Amino acid sequence: MAAYDDENIFAKILRGEIPCFKVYEDEHSLAFLDIMPRATGHTLVIPKVRATDLTDIATDDLGALMGTVQTLAPKIRDALGADGFMIQQFNGAGAGQTVFHLHIHIIPRRAGESLKPHGTRMEDKDVLAKTAETLTAALSA
Ligand code: 5GP
User: Fold this and answer.
1) How far apart are CA 60 and CA 33, in angstroms?
2) Domain for residue 3, yes or no?
3) Nearest to 127 by CA among 22, 14, 21
4) Cys-Cys crosslink for 105: which of 20, 52, 88, 111, Cβ 3.0 to 4.6 Å?
């Protein structure tokens, strides 16, 4: 595994150097919309600690991250009227990882709706902004 690169895109988002559609933040984690969602409401949850992938994070920090995922996922599902949610997480380029700061995908699922391909189609900014508004309200409640 390559060393953590502080110039990766999610490190820049964490430092506020590039924008994101943030939906939730706590002392351990940041959650924001995927700009190429596989389904409406596709959210990424990242730890604030530097970690390349699942093998690169202390158990306590991973526990805090997954606690946030466990809290947010059903709220995201319900806020968007989805039927369920899928959790995805890639480790290594060969497994499909493209951004090398650990992240957990929360993907709301609707019965009968196919997933869009992974990281291929940029969503319209107005659609992302509207979804972020809905989720920010739901996740702060
Ligand atoms: P990975 O394959 O590493 O698990 O997925 C990286 C995810 O990050 C992809 O789903 C991709 O759409 C998303 N992504 C890539 N660049 C950006 C970005 O600049 N901002 C946001 N919000 N998501 C991004």
Assistant:
1) 25
2) no
3) 21
4) 88
Mean predicted confidence (pLDDT) in 32-59: 98
Q: How far is the CA of 129 from the centre of ligand 1 (A)?
A: 16
Q: Count of domains in the chain?
A: 1
Q: Is residue 80 assigned to a domain?
A: yes
Domain span including residue 48: 9-112+119-140
Say which of 28, 42, 101, 103 is annotated catalytic. Answer: 103
Pairwise CA distance, residues 58 & 20, whole Å: 26
What backbone phi and psi angles, to 5 degrees, belong to 122? -70, 130
94 located within any domain: yes
Q: What is the pTM of this model?
A: 0.98
Is 28 one of the catalytic residues?
no
CA-wise closest residue to 131 among 123, 140, 119, 122:
123
11-32 pLDDT per residue, tens: 999 999 999 999 999 999 999 9
DSSP for residue 13: H
